[in-house]
Amino acid sequence: MPRADVTITTRDGVCPASVFTPSAGSGPWPAVIFYMDAPAIRPTLWEMAQKLADGGYLVLLPDLFYREGPYEPMKPSEIFADPAKRENMMKWVGSLDRDKKISDSGAFIDYLGTRTDVVGTRYGVTGYCMGGNWALTAAGAYPDRFAAILSFHGGNLATDKPDSPHLFVGGVKGEVYVAGAIEDGSFPDEQKARLEEALTVAGIDHEVVTYEGAHHGFAVPDIPSYNEAAAERHWAATFEVLRDRLTVAS
User: What pLDDT sits at residue 247?
Assistant: First the structure.
């Protein structure tokens, strides 16, 4: 697997990350930032990042929990079965406010700019669960740097809080694709409608959909609610948006 471990200096410390490149061929390639879900960096995300890379992209997968120091890899089945472990994980998720998301995303963008195997200065960004929120936040903060923005079962995308991602999408210049899940308390229908309205008013090329029959976590294979059909649909949408936008942007 063509994966390389790197470190990225941020405002708040040093963030471990992995870089994935296509299994065949040579660069440079368009770049995509992959924002993790709440159970953090683990082999399942490496496999997903490599699948994305094999579509013809350089993929950056940063550890968004780096401020917590070294930690044992999380197993979703154990996390969701143990209230104490789940509470601790959610505490880490909650500690990452808008300011930290923007600051870290800026460091990731700067890092990609140093790589000679990256083509272009506009990137793709995708995220799952908490990472879906990060993807929209990054796009809103750096509208000139993202041509393709994807969020899958992302949480709290259009809340009534002042730092909600939907309040900052007005300047986004890329295409936005958001796929939610049914019965998802972190992205209910009222948030979907609010996000849809914000993107429409801003004139942004977008699609906000709910995958019928799929629950939160549908795209990630080691999550108990993984849904193979929904996961395949998400991959098809991902590659379609990236193909349409990054080839033009680069």
Answer: 67
Burial class (CB in 10 A: 0-12, 13-18, 19+), 94: exposed
Q: Reduced to 3 DSSP states, what percent helix, strand and coil does the chain have, rounded to the nearest 5?
A: 40, 20, 40
pTM, full prediction: 0.96
Render pLDDT for 192-215 as a digit per residue (tens, 0 to 9): 999 999 999 999 999 999 999 999
Strand partners, 234: none
Domains delineated in the chain: 6-249 (3.40.50.1820)
User: Around 242, how many Cα atoms within 13 Å sit in the side-chain half-sphere?
Assistant: 26
Q: Which burial class, exposed, middle or buried, applies to 7 when counting CB atoms under 10 A from its CB (0-12, 13-18, 19+)?
A: middle
On whether the CB atoms of residues 157 and 151 are closer than 8 A, the answer is: yes
* Nearby residues of 232 by Cβ (< 8 Å), 6 or more positions away: none
Q: Could you give the CA distance from residue 36 to residue 129 in angstroms, rounded to a whole number?
A: 8
* E strand or H helix that includes residue 213: none
- Which 8-state DSSP code applies to residue 29? B
Amino acid 245 reads R
Judge if the upstream peptide bond of residue 16 is cis by omega within 30 degrees of 0: no
